[in-house]
Amino acid sequence: MQISTRFTVAVHALLCIAYFSPERKVTSGFIAGSVKVNPVVVRRTLGQLKEADLVTVEAGVGGASLARSAAEITLLDVYRAVESTGERLFNFHENPNPACPVGGNIHAVLDGELAAAQAALEDRLAQTSLADLYAKLADLTGTSAG
Amino acid sequence: MQISTRFTVAVHALLCIAYFSPERKVTSGFIAGSVKVNPVVVRRTLGQLKEADLVTVEAGVGGASLARSAAEITLLDVYRAVESTGERLFNFHENPNPACPVGGNIHAVLDGELAAAQAALEDRLAQTSLADLYAKLADLTGTSAG
DNA sequence: TCATGTTGTAACAATAATAGTTACAACAAG
DNA sequence: CTTGTTGTAACTATTATTGTTACAACATGA
User: Fewest CB within a 10 Å sphere: which of A64, A94, B14, B91?
Assistant: First the structure.
C-alpha cells in the first residue's frame, strides 16, 4: 500500500506558499493550478495544515501563509498533519489466537520491531525542513529570496 | 494510510512455520487458526511468500516450510514479498504544472527526500531477521529449539 | 480405483479510503 | 451590493483490502 497523495500535495502547497507569499496572494485556486488538482482538494489539505498550526488562511479575503518559519516546519510535521491521525504505520490483524504459542506472543515479538521501523521513517522525515526544500527550489529557479 | 495486514499476517505465518515445522504439518488451515483469518487469506499470502522464494509449499499433501534459514529471512524480505510490488511508499500527484516554478521542480526537490525516508524504513526492516523474532518467541514460550 | 485432505485460484461481496466534482452559505473588502 | 474566496456538505467513481464460497488439481494411502 502507498501513502496517499495528500502528503505530497501538502508539501507542494507549502512550497507554493513559501515561494510566492506574500508577493502574490496564494489562494487554493492558485495552488490547485500548480498541483493540478481540484481546488477543493487543496482546501481540504490546507484545512489539515491549519489544524496542525502549520499555515494560516484568511477567510473571505483569501490567501494562505506559513504559521511559522520554513525552518521550523519539517516533513514529519506535514506527514503527521495529513496522514497519520495518531495511528500506526503498520496495520495488525485483529484477533491472533491466544491459545497458540505463536498467536499468543506475536504482539510481544513484533510490535517493537514495527515501532522501530516507523520511528526510522519518521526520524528521517524530521531531518528535512521546508527551508531545506525551499533552498533546493531557489537553487533550481535562480530565486534568491521569497 | 496504513500498511495492510498482509505484512503482519505473513510474518505470523512464517513464525508458525519456524516454530512448528517440521514436527507438525503446517497447513494453511493451521496457520489460519493461529492468525484467526480465513484459510484462503493465508494461502494467498503463502503464495506471495512462495513467489519471493521465502517458503515452499507441498501441493496435494499440504504443509509449508522455510525455503532458507530463518537467519536469512529479514522483515524487509517479507515486506517486499507482500507489500511493495516494486512501487514507491509515497504516492505522488500525477500532473504538477510544469509552467509553475514550484510545479516544474517539485519532483527534483522532493523525490530524493522521499526515497531517503523509504530507505530508512527499509533499512530498519532489513536489520531484523526471522531468527531474531524466533529467538524472542522461544524465550517467551520456553522452547529451546524448533 | 477411490476417498481424503490439501493447495491454488476464480469469483463475488462488503467495507473503507481516496480522489474528483458540484453546490452553496459565510465572509471580507472595495 | 458585487466580487472573490473559504469552508464544508454531498455525492460519485475508483481502487484496495478483506472475507467468503466454490471447485479443479494434486498427492497419498487404503
Answer: A94
Q: Are B55 and B67 in contact (CB under 8 A)?
A: yes
Chain A contact present for B130, CB below 8 A: no
pLDDT at A143 over 80: no
**pTM of the entire structure?**
0.93
Instruction: State the pLDDT at residue B10.
Output: 98
Structural domains present in chain A:
6-86+129-141 (1.10.10.10)
Chain A residues inside the 8 Å CB shell of B125: 117
Alpha-carbon gap, residue A54 to A71, rounded angstroms: 12
Q: How confident is the model at residue A145 (pLDDT cuts 50, 70, 90)?
A: low
Find chain A residues with C-beta within 8 A of B1's C-beta: 1-4, 83
SS3 annotation, B61-100: CCCEEECCCHHHCEHHHHHHHHCCCCCCCECCCCCCCCCC
- Reduce the DSSP state of residue A83 to 3 states and report it: coil
User: Rounded CA gap, B137 and B26, in Å?
Assistant: 17
Q: Is the peptide bond before B22 cis (omega within 30 degrees of 0)?
A: yes
Cell of A20: 510566492
User: B102 and B126 in contact (C-beta within 8 Å)?
Assistant: no
State how far the alpha carbon of A143 is from the alpha carbons of A48, A73, A133, A135, in Å. Answer: 29, 20, 13, 9
